[in-house]
Each structure stands twice: as structure tokens, then as C-alpha cells.
Amino acid sequence: MKRIMDIIADETGGKSFNSFKYSYDTLSTPKPDYDEDNHSDREWLGNGETSRHKLPIDLRSMAKSLSANRPEPVVKYFLDGSRRVYHVDDIAYNRNVFPVIAGQVGVACCRREDRRLYPQSPTVNELVLSLPKDCDQDGHHTDAYLAKITKKINDHEILRRLDLNFSQIIAYNTDKTVDSKMEDRGTARIQDYMINAEKRTVDNLATMGNLSSSAYLIKDGSLEYIPMSVGMGKYADIRTFKDSYRWVIGASKSFNPENCRDKNNKPNADSIFHLEEGFRTPVMRFINKRIENLSFAVWYLRLRDVKQTRTPFDGVLKLERILVTDSENDDGLDSDEVDMISATILNERNPTCYGADLRFANHLYPVYLTESFIKSNFMSGEMLMRIF
């Protein structure tokens, strides 16, 4: 019986090497484009809220009041995405050898009702494959060409017996003038696929009317999505559906403090370093030059005392909002709303996942549970690699 890689090699005119299979998750993997690496892409526009705060804002009493008097927090939904990637073979085209990368992609949203979390349907749990663009040697209609190959491998007896199928085969760029490893390019395309699924989930929730001022969503990670250039459809550019993010907060557990800036575009890491537990920074507004006509608001919230953490920046969350309405773009976010959201998030710091994750000081427990739920649905890496 032919292997799945034999079918791919036959259909694309390549040569499979039956190479050693391994997981990339134990190795260094590329960061997404919207990460905190390059502050030069950002132009800081000054104050991002209606009040002109100069000092950090104490939210401890508000957090206690919300906990005592509000039966249901205004944060109702929690979203996270996860992916695992594997080197499953090498394949040759025109005397050049390229990695073949398989990925498991999961995206889940959990909703809170009566202090319990429930999965919000639908949950994304998909298999994808990343092949070099050279697999389409004619270079025409690559998406349709790869869809045909996807159907062929999904008809394979092994996949039918295991009730598995691949949702999509994605081509990665093989231009030799680009300074990056081929495996990083393939992994980045699977990362893009996951991000696209996250955006689709948010848009569906907003379209169905689930998100509102009394039902916010916390998305794990940044909202600073750089537009995707190829193959991701409607959700390639967040500007086309930015209204869906009106009630969404991005919460980043990790960030580069050197990229924190004040209203004068000066490094501002020192103010975060000295931020006390239960305080937030003033909100700042910025644009990313790679995402024209879209403004962001960002502020930082310390969840835990520095004495309870490993480093001075542990226990600090970076919080983001996309500025959607005209009033938000003109005047910034309503400061009372920012305080209420921040105090609500402060109350999410307990219980902790201490010992289960090195980033415990930055985790919001419902987000941690959502992430754990996603990963519990993944098949083992050994099983996935063996089907090739």
C-alpha cells in the first residue's frame, strides 16, 4: 500500500526521501509578524483614553467592589489558539530538497456561565499540510491544484480507517532571495492558518450577537494582525471586519519591555518595572505602519506583586483594544470602561496554574483552561507522524 508521501510525490512529480520524522515544538520556531520585535513599525500618537492620566491608576478597591457586588463579570468569553508542527518528510523538486511539514491546529472559545466554563461551538481541530510552492511546477491555480491533492490523500485507506482528514494543503514560499529557513516558512504558514481560524471565530461570535458591553471576549495574545498576502480569504485583513472586535481585549502574557513607549515615543519600560500590584498604566494610542487606517490602544496591568515572581516583568499583562468607533479614534477609550475591564481582569488572576506553566504569574485562569481544552483534543504527535 502506498504511503501518503508516495501519493504526494506522484501527484506533484517530486521525490520523497522517507526522512526522519520529528516535532518542531521542541525546537526554536518563528514568531508571528505581529509580535513585539520591531517598534520601528509603530507610530505612537499619545493619550489613548478620555482622562489624561499622568500616573498609574489604582484598581484594587474597584476590583473588590466588582467581586462583591456584580454577580456575573462582564468578561464572558475566552479565546485561544494552539498549533503543533512536525517534520514528516523531505521532498525534492528540480534538484532542490524541501521539508514537508504537518500541523495540528486548534482554536477554542469558552464561555462562562454561573462560574463555570463551557466550550462555545464550533471548536476548530484540524490537520493541515505545508508543502513548498515548487510542488506546483506549472505555477498556475495553486490553490485548486492543492485542493485536488488534498482530496486524494483524504481518500487514503489509513486516513479513512482512522477517521482523519486534512483540511487544507498550504504552499510556502521557496524564493531563495528571502533570508529564512524553509522549515520556518512552512511553520509560519501553519501559524497563519491558526490565526485565520481565530479571527473567523471572533467574527462569527460578533455576527451572532454574542459579544457586547456586558459580554466581552479576552483573546490570548496580541490583536496586532499584519495583513496576510496570500491564500487566507476574507480574514486575511482584519480591517475588513474590525467592527467585530469592538468588545474584544487582547491579553499578552509576554512582551518586550524595551518596545514600551510613552506619548513622546520614548522607552517607557521603567514605569512598567515599578508598576505596583493592582495598578494599570495610562492608555497609549498607536498605529502600525504595516496596517494602515487602523489604530490601537494599549496599556499594562500588574496582576501580582514583583516579590511573587521570577522577574520584574512577570505578573504584568499587556492589554490591547482596536479603536473601532469615530469617538474612540478621536478621544480614545472611555477611561471608566478601561478601569472596569482592568479591574475585572485583575479578579481573573486567581486561582493560578502555579507549577503547571512557567508563565503562571501572567496567566488568566479561564484562558489557561481554554488552552488546556484545545491541547486535550490533539492526537499524539507519534500517531500523526506515523500516518506518513
What does this structure look like?
This protein has 388 residues and is α+β, with helices and mostly antiparallel strands. It has two domains: 1-24 and 83-197, no CATH class; 31-74 and 213-379, no CATH class. It has helices at residues 4-12, 60-69, 142-154, 157-162, 182-207, 269-273, 326-331, 335-346, 365-376, 381-386, and strands at residues 15-16, 22-23, 42-47, 57-58, 75-93, 96-113, 116-132, 166-172, 216-220, 248-252, 279-280, 284-288, 295-302, 316-323. Strands 1, 2, 3, 5, 6, 7, 8, 9, 10, 12, 13 and 14 form a twelve-stranded mixed β-sheet that branches. It has a two-stranded antiparallel ribbon with strand order 4-11. A hairpin with a 2-residue loop joins β5 and β6. The N and C termini lie close together (12 Å).
Summary, kept brief:
Helices cover 27% and strands 27% of the residues. It has 388 residues and is α+β, with helices and mostly antiparallel strands.
